[in-house]
Design a protein that fits this description.
The protein is an alpha/beta fold. The chain is about 50% helix and about 10% strand. The protein has two domains: about 5-230, 3-Layer(aba) Sandwich (Rossmann fold); about 255-340, 2-Layer Sandwich (Uridine Diphospho-n-acetylenolpyruvylglucosamine Reductase, domain 3), CATH 3.30.465. The longest helix has 29 residues, at about 225-250.
Protein backbone atom coordinates (compact mmCIF):
# COMPACT_ATOMS: atom_id res chain seq x y z
CA UNK A 1 0.00 0.00 0.00
CA UNK A 2 1.45 3.35 -1.07
CA UNK A 3 1.67 6.60 0.90
CA UNK A 4 -1.30 8.86 1.57
CA UNK A 5 -2.17 10.89 -1.58
CA UNK A 6 -1.15 14.14 0.10
CA UNK A 7 2.20 12.68 1.16
CA UNK A 8 2.73 11.35 -2.36
CA UNK A 9 1.92 14.75 -3.91
CA UNK A 10 4.43 16.59 -1.72
CA UNK A 11 7.10 13.97 -2.35
CA UNK A 12 6.52 14.11 -6.10
CA UNK A 13 6.93 17.89 -6.09
CA UNK A 14 10.13 17.64 -4.05
CA UNK A 15 11.49 14.88 -6.29
CA UNK A 16 11.01 17.10 -9.36
CA UNK A 17 12.83 19.97 -7.65
CA UNK A 18 15.73 17.77 -6.56
CA UNK A 19 16.13 16.47 -10.12
CA UNK A 20 17.87 19.71 -11.08
CA UNK A 21 20.58 19.30 -8.43
CA UNK A 22 23.87 17.42 -8.58
CA UNK A 23 24.89 14.52 -6.33
CA UNK A 24 26.76 15.94 -3.34
CA UNK A 25 24.75 19.16 -3.29
CA UNK A 26 23.23 20.19 0.01
CA UNK A 27 19.60 21.22 0.49
CA UNK A 28 18.72 23.12 3.64
CA UNK A 29 15.01 23.09 4.38
CA UNK A 30 13.84 26.36 5.92
CA UNK A 31 11.43 25.00 8.52
CA UNK A 32 9.31 27.07 10.89
CA UNK A 33 7.51 24.03 12.24
CA UNK A 34 4.30 24.98 10.45
CA UNK A 35 2.44 22.47 8.28
CA UNK A 36 3.88 23.66 4.97
CA UNK A 37 7.55 23.57 5.92
CA UNK A 38 7.14 20.48 8.10
CA UNK A 39 5.59 18.50 5.24
CA UNK A 40 8.40 19.79 3.03
CA UNK A 41 11.06 18.71 5.54
CA UNK A 42 9.61 15.19 5.74
CA UNK A 43 9.50 14.90 1.94
CA UNK A 44 13.06 16.15 1.51
CA UNK A 45 14.33 13.74 4.17
CA UNK A 46 12.64 10.91 2.22
CA UNK A 47 13.61 11.93 -1.33
CA UNK A 48 17.08 13.49 -0.98
CA UNK A 49 19.02 10.26 -0.23
CA UNK A 50 17.56 8.65 -3.36
CA UNK A 51 18.79 11.62 -5.42
CA UNK A 52 22.25 11.53 -3.86
CA UNK A 53 21.65 14.94 -2.33
CA UNK A 54 22.57 15.89 1.24
CA UNK A 55 19.63 17.17 3.28
CA UNK A 56 19.74 19.45 6.29
CA UNK A 57 17.44 21.97 7.88
CA UNK A 58 17.43 25.36 9.52
CA UNK A 59 14.82 27.24 11.52
CA UNK A 60 14.96 30.98 12.10
CA UNK A 61 14.12 32.37 15.53
CA UNK A 62 12.91 35.94 15.03
CA UNK A 63 12.72 36.52 18.78
CA UNK A 64 9.35 38.22 18.42
CA UNK A 65 7.40 36.02 20.83
CA UNK A 66 7.93 34.67 24.34
CA UNK A 67 9.34 31.16 24.19
CA UNK A 68 10.61 31.53 20.62
CA UNK A 69 13.94 29.93 21.55
CA UNK A 70 12.13 26.87 22.93
CA UNK A 71 10.07 26.61 19.76
CA UNK A 72 13.21 26.82 17.65
CA UNK A 73 14.79 24.02 19.68
CA UNK A 74 11.65 21.92 19.17
CA UNK A 75 11.83 22.40 15.40
CA UNK A 76 15.51 21.44 15.35
CA UNK A 77 14.59 18.26 17.24
CA UNK A 78 11.80 17.53 14.74
CA UNK A 79 14.13 18.01 11.77
CA UNK A 80 16.75 15.77 13.36
CA UNK A 81 14.11 13.13 14.00
CA UNK A 82 13.12 13.21 10.35
CA UNK A 83 16.74 12.53 9.38
CA UNK A 84 17.85 16.02 8.33
CA UNK A 85 21.49 16.69 9.15
CA UNK A 86 22.80 19.22 9.86
CA UNK A 87 19.77 20.73 11.60
CA UNK A 88 20.21 24.07 13.33
CA UNK A 89 18.54 27.30 14.38
CA UNK A 90 19.55 30.89 13.78
CA UNK A 91 18.50 33.79 16.02
CA UNK A 92 17.99 37.09 14.20
CA UNK A 93 17.26 40.67 15.22
CA UNK A 94 14.30 42.17 13.37
CA UNK A 95 14.80 45.83 12.55
CA UNK A 96 12.34 48.49 13.69
CA UNK A 97 11.17 51.57 11.78
CA UNK A 98 14.18 53.71 12.63
CA UNK A 99 12.76 56.55 10.56
CA UNK A 100 14.19 55.17 7.31
CA UNK A 101 12.32 55.16 4.02
CA UNK A 102 13.55 51.61 3.37
CA UNK A 103 11.53 50.25 6.31
CA UNK A 104 8.30 48.71 5.02
CA UNK A 105 6.74 47.31 8.18
CA UNK A 106 7.25 44.37 10.52
CA UNK A 107 6.44 41.71 7.91
CA UNK A 108 9.06 42.98 5.48
CA UNK A 109 11.61 43.50 8.28
CA UNK A 110 11.15 39.93 9.53
CA UNK A 111 11.42 38.62 5.97
CA UNK A 112 14.67 40.50 5.37
CA UNK A 113 16.18 39.20 8.60
CA UNK A 114 15.06 35.66 7.80
CA UNK A 115 16.52 35.63 4.30
CA UNK A 116 19.79 37.11 5.56
CA UNK A 117 20.07 34.24 8.05
CA UNK A 118 19.27 31.66 5.38
CA UNK A 119 21.85 33.17 3.03
CA UNK A 120 24.46 33.03 5.78
CA UNK A 121 23.66 29.39 6.53
CA UNK A 122 24.08 28.41 2.89
CA UNK A 123 27.35 30.32 2.59
CA UNK A 124 28.72 28.69 5.74
CA UNK A 125 27.95 25.16 4.55
CA UNK A 126 31.03 23.12 3.71
CA UNK A 127 29.91 20.55 1.16
CA UNK A 128 31.40 19.12 -2.04
CA UNK A 129 28.65 20.65 -4.20
CA UNK A 130 26.39 23.67 -4.06
CA UNK A 131 24.20 24.64 -1.10
CA UNK A 132 20.52 25.26 -1.79
CA UNK A 133 17.68 26.48 0.40
CA UNK A 134 14.23 24.96 0.03
CA UNK A 135 11.19 26.99 1.06
CA UNK A 136 7.68 25.73 1.81
CA UNK A 137 5.64 28.33 -0.07
CA UNK A 138 2.44 26.78 -1.39
CA UNK A 139 -0.11 27.52 -4.11
CA UNK A 140 -2.11 29.51 -1.55
CA UNK A 141 0.93 31.63 -0.69
CA UNK A 142 1.38 32.31 -4.39
CA UNK A 143 -2.25 33.41 -4.75
CA UNK A 144 -1.93 35.74 -1.75
CA UNK A 145 1.23 37.24 -3.21
CA UNK A 146 -0.57 38.04 -6.46
CA UNK A 147 -3.43 39.73 -4.59
CA UNK A 148 -1.00 41.79 -2.52
CA UNK A 149 0.75 42.89 -5.70
CA UNK A 150 -2.58 43.90 -7.23
CA UNK A 151 -3.45 45.94 -4.14
CA UNK A 152 -0.12 47.77 -4.34
CA UNK A 153 -0.61 48.54 -8.02
CA UNK A 154 2.54 46.59 -8.84
CA UNK A 155 3.80 45.65 -12.27
CA UNK A 156 4.05 42.29 -14.02
CA UNK A 157 7.17 41.18 -12.16
CA UNK A 158 5.46 41.54 -8.79
CA UNK A 159 2.23 39.95 -10.06
CA UNK A 160 4.30 37.05 -11.39
CA UNK A 161 4.63 35.97 -7.79
CA UNK A 162 7.34 33.66 -6.53
CA UNK A 163 9.53 31.64 -8.86
CA UNK A 164 10.11 27.89 -8.35
CA UNK A 165 13.84 28.62 -8.66
CA UNK A 166 15.34 31.96 -7.65
CA UNK A 167 19.10 31.93 -7.24
CA UNK A 168 19.86 29.41 -4.51
CA UNK A 169 16.22 29.27 -3.40
CA UNK A 170 13.92 26.42 -4.40
CA UNK A 171 10.13 26.42 -3.97
CA UNK A 172 8.82 22.98 -4.94
CA UNK A 173 5.34 23.36 -3.40
CA UNK A 174 3.98 26.25 -5.47
CA UNK A 175 1.47 23.90 -7.10
CA UNK A 176 0.52 22.22 -3.80
CA UNK A 177 -2.49 23.65 -1.88
CA UNK A 178 -2.02 24.45 1.80
CA UNK A 179 -4.71 21.91 2.70
CA UNK A 180 -2.57 19.20 1.16
CA UNK A 181 0.48 19.97 3.29
CA UNK A 182 -1.71 19.85 6.41
CA UNK A 183 -3.12 16.49 5.27
CA UNK A 184 0.40 15.20 4.66
CA UNK A 185 1.44 16.11 8.20
CA UNK A 186 -1.62 14.37 9.63
CA UNK A 187 -0.93 11.25 7.58
CA UNK A 188 2.69 11.17 8.78
CA UNK A 189 1.76 11.74 12.42
CA UNK A 190 3.54 15.10 12.52
CA UNK A 191 2.19 17.86 14.78
CA UNK A 192 2.64 21.27 13.10
CA UNK A 193 3.13 24.44 15.11
CA UNK A 194 0.70 27.28 14.46
CA UNK A 195 2.49 30.61 14.59
CA UNK A 196 0.30 33.06 16.59
CA UNK A 197 1.17 35.75 14.06
CA UNK A 198 -0.69 33.73 11.42
CA UNK A 199 -3.94 34.63 13.17
CA UNK A 200 -3.12 38.29 13.81
CA UNK A 201 -5.15 40.43 11.41
CA UNK A 202 -2.86 43.37 12.09
CA UNK A 203 -0.73 41.82 9.35
CA UNK A 204 -1.82 42.46 5.77
CA UNK A 205 -1.11 38.95 4.52
CA UNK A 206 -3.15 37.46 7.35
CA UNK A 207 -6.15 39.61 6.39
CA UNK A 208 -5.80 38.47 2.79
CA UNK A 209 -5.63 34.84 3.94
CA UNK A 210 -8.43 34.96 6.50
CA UNK A 211 -10.82 37.47 4.93
CA UNK A 212 -10.13 38.28 1.28
CA UNK A 213 -9.51 34.80 -0.12
CA UNK A 214 -12.65 33.28 1.49
CA UNK A 215 -14.71 36.25 0.27
CA UNK A 216 -13.43 35.75 -3.27
CA UNK A 217 -14.20 32.04 -3.12
CA UNK A 218 -17.73 32.81 -1.94
CA UNK A 219 -18.32 35.42 -4.63
CA UNK A 220 -16.56 33.74 -7.55
CA UNK A 221 -16.69 30.07 -6.66
CA UNK A 222 -13.95 27.55 -5.93
CA UNK A 223 -10.64 27.57 -7.72
CA UNK A 224 -9.73 31.22 -7.09
CA UNK A 225 -6.34 30.38 -5.57
CA UNK A 226 -5.51 28.06 -8.46
CA UNK A 227 -6.51 30.73 -11.01
CA UNK A 228 -4.38 33.39 -9.32
CA UNK A 229 -1.38 31.05 -9.17
CA UNK A 230 -1.88 30.21 -12.85
CA UNK A 231 -1.97 33.92 -13.66
CA UNK A 232 1.32 34.34 -11.83
CA UNK A 233 2.92 31.69 -14.01
CA UNK A 234 1.71 33.35 -17.22
CA UNK A 235 2.89 36.79 -16.11
CA UNK A 236 6.25 35.36 -15.06
CA UNK A 237 6.88 34.17 -18.61
CA UNK A 238 5.99 37.63 -19.95
CA UNK A 239 8.13 39.40 -17.35
CA UNK A 240 11.10 37.16 -18.10
CA UNK A 241 10.86 38.04 -21.80
CA UNK A 242 10.60 41.79 -21.10
CA UNK A 243 13.51 41.64 -18.65
CA UNK A 244 15.64 39.93 -21.28
CA UNK A 245 14.87 42.71 -23.78
CA UNK A 246 15.61 45.35 -21.13
CA UNK A 247 18.98 43.72 -20.47
CA UNK A 248 19.89 43.99 -24.16
CA UNK A 249 18.81 47.65 -24.32
CA UNK A 250 20.78 48.44 -21.16
CA UNK A 251 23.90 47.02 -22.78
CA UNK A 252 23.27 49.12 -25.91
CA UNK A 253 23.21 52.23 -23.69
CA UNK A 254 26.59 51.27 -22.26
CA UNK A 255 25.40 49.28 -19.23
CA UNK A 256 24.23 50.51 -15.85
CA UNK A 257 27.67 51.91 -15.04
CA UNK A 258 27.27 54.39 -17.89
CA UNK A 259 24.24 55.87 -16.13
CA UNK A 260 26.38 56.32 -13.03
CA UNK A 261 29.21 57.94 -14.99
CA UNK A 262 28.53 60.09 -18.03
CA UNK A 263 24.86 59.22 -18.07
CA UNK A 264 22.57 57.89 -20.77
CA UNK A 265 21.25 59.97 -23.70
CA UNK A 266 17.69 60.92 -22.88
CA UNK A 267 16.66 60.70 -26.54
CA UNK A 268 17.75 57.06 -26.78
CA UNK A 269 15.93 56.24 -23.55
CA UNK A 270 12.80 58.04 -24.69
CA UNK A 271 12.68 56.00 -27.88
CA UNK A 272 12.25 52.76 -25.92
CA UNK A 273 8.76 51.35 -25.24
CA UNK A 274 7.58 52.30 -21.76
CA UNK A 275 7.62 48.72 -20.44
CA UNK A 276 11.25 48.33 -21.48
CA UNK A 277 12.30 51.85 -20.46
CA UNK A 278 10.95 51.43 -16.94
CA UNK A 279 12.87 48.18 -16.54
CA UNK A 280 16.06 49.82 -17.79
CA UNK A 281 15.60 52.69 -15.33
CA UNK A 282 14.95 50.28 -12.46
CA UNK A 283 18.16 48.42 -13.24
CA UNK A 284 20.10 51.67 -13.18
CA UNK A 285 18.51 52.80 -9.90
CA UNK A 286 19.35 49.51 -8.20
CA UNK A 287 22.91 49.62 -9.54
CA UNK A 288 23.24 53.15 -8.16
CA UNK A 289 22.43 51.87 -4.67
CA UNK A 290 18.66 52.18 -4.20
CA UNK A 291 17.42 49.54 -1.70
CA UNK A 292 15.31 47.03 -3.68
CA UNK A 293 12.57 46.90 -1.04
CA UNK A 294 12.17 50.67 -1.00
CA UNK A 295 12.32 51.34 -4.74
CA UNK A 296 8.68 51.67 -5.83
CA UNK A 297 7.02 52.28 -9.17
CA UNK A 298 6.40 55.92 -8.26
CA UNK A 299 10.16 56.41 -8.07
CA UNK A 300 10.63 54.91 -11.51
CA UNK A 301 7.86 57.13 -12.89
CA UNK A 302 9.49 60.25 -11.43
CA UNK A 303 12.78 59.20 -13.00
CA UNK A 304 11.06 58.54 -16.30
CA UNK A 305 9.59 62.06 -16.25
CA UNK A 306 13.13 63.39 -16.59
CA UNK A 307 13.25 61.53 -19.89
CA UNK A 308 9.76 61.83 -21.34
CA UNK A 309 8.25 64.75 -19.43
CA UNK A 310 11.20 67.12 -19.27
CA UNK A 311 10.26 70.75 -18.52
CA UNK A 312 13.36 71.94 -16.70
CA UNK A 313 12.77 70.22 -13.35
CA UNK A 314 15.81 70.12 -11.10
CA UNK A 315 16.04 66.41 -10.18
CA UNK A 316 14.24 63.51 -8.53
CA UNK A 317 15.33 61.90 -5.29
CA UNK A 318 15.23 58.13 -4.96
CA UNK A 319 15.50 55.84 -1.92
CA UNK A 320 18.94 55.29 -0.45
CA UNK A 321 20.12 58.85 -1.01
CA UNK A 322 20.30 58.42 -4.80
CA UNK A 323 19.43 61.27 -7.13
CA UNK A 324 18.40 61.23 -10.78
CA UNK A 325 19.15 64.35 -12.78
CA UNK A 326 19.05 65.40 -16.43
CA UNK A 327 22.06 67.37 -17.61
CA UNK A 328 22.74 68.48 -21.16
CA UNK A 329 20.38 65.89 -22.60
CA UNK A 330 21.69 62.99 -20.54
CA UNK A 331 20.20 61.17 -17.56
CA UNK A 332 22.55 60.55 -14.65
CA UNK A 333 22.19 58.79 -11.32
CA UNK A 334 24.47 59.44 -8.36
CA UNK A 335 24.64 59.90 -4.60
CA UNK A 336 22.69 63.06 -3.73
CA UNK A 337 25.66 64.59 -1.90
CA UNK A 338 27.47 64.89 -5.25
CA UNK A 339 25.00 67.34 -6.71
CA UNK A 340 25.66 71.05 -6.39
CA UNK A 341 23.67 71.97 -9.47
CA UNK A 342 21.11 74.66 -8.59
CA UNK A 343 18.74 73.50 -11.28
CA UNK A 344 18.17 71.21 -14.24
CA UNK A 345 19.94 72.05 -17.47
CA UNK A 346 19.87 70.99 -21.10
Amino acid sequence: MGPHPAVAAVRTAVRASLAGLMPGDLVLVACSGGADSLALAAAVAFEAPKAGVLAGGITVDHGLQPGSADQAARVVSLMTGLGLSPASSARVAVAGPGGTEAYQGPEAAARSARYAALDAAAQAAEVPGAAWIMLGHTLDDQAETVLLGLARGSGARSLAGMSPVSGQYLRPLLQIPRAQTAAACTALGLQPWEDPHNGDTAFTRVRVRREVMPALATALGPGVAEALARTAGLLRADADALDAIASVETDKLGGTMAALGDGWPAAALGALPEAIRHRVLRRAALAAGCPPGALAQRHIVSLDELVTGWHGQRWTDLPGGIRGQRRYGRLLLFAAARSEDPGGRE
